[in-house]
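Box 3.1. Reading complex inputs
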Amino acid sequence: MKLPAEVLEVLTDPRTVITGDRVSIPFELGRPLYEKVNKILKEAGGKWDGRKSVRAHVFPHPVEEFMRHALLAQEFVSGRDLGWFPTPPPVVELLLDHAGIRPDMTVLEPEAGTGAIAGPAAGRGAVVDCVELDERRARVLEEGGYARRVVRGNFLTDLQPLDYEVGFDRVVMNPPFHEAMEHVNHALGFLGDDAMLVAVLPDGVRWREDRAHTEFRRVVEDSGGEFFPLPRDAFEEVGARVHTVVALVPTGGGDCQMRNHSWHLRRPRQLDLFAV
Ligand SMILES: C[S@@+](CC[C@H](N)C(=O)[O-])C[C@H]1O[C@@H](n2cnc3c(N)ncnc32)[C@H](O)[C@@H]1O
């Protein structure tokens, strides 16, 4: 998104302080200009904190580098452009409870954002691998220091199930909703045996009639999985009013039919049969 010249002027004003996780503008702006600046900072992921001790737009990650790049380029990638809605803590707790995270379990967070899920999963003792497409957020994950591995890249194309020798115990995810089915289907391939995928998804997954959704419902049903609707205001604190559900998809034991990690391991041998 292009930064309007007048907003750029405010953000590059020597009085504007951009430090740590916040941007503070300690001088008066006319209402229309304030609205414009506020809109841009919110788009970028900032939230106005009006408390006397703060009075700044606060971001869920360090913002200096990001703003430096944005101001140099005079544009920025909006958080929303990549479907970024950090999972609020009460939803994270619910996901981790459903996932039954225990110490030393391996967990994949395939679109980890700034670690809203990955951090607390590691806090419960899990060994967590993260993937994140957005450079800034990936850097925040690396700096967090709790992940075994952070892949900066596209989960759909840069990470394949057979990059791992064994599948994960859990995949816990809140993918970008505009391509939720692609992400969730790809994620199934990373599940070990006796494993489980726990995903926040748009409610449409329960009723949309296209092939991808119908097929996913069949996988959930065959696996003995289920959907739990979340309250409508579950994501309100991060500025999103979306109707969401949690999908629980267990793999069952070694004879499971799902295209999980074992299925991918077996697959090359099956193809070899056709090669002779
Ligand atoms: C809805 S947010 C959720 C972030 C994090 N899972 C959480 O719960 O806070 C989706 C995240 O997916 C990232 N993302 C979008 N497309 C991606 C892709 N193809 N591969 C990896 N990450 C992606 C976005 O940058 C964004 O941080």
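In summary: The chain has two domains: 5-76, 89-266.
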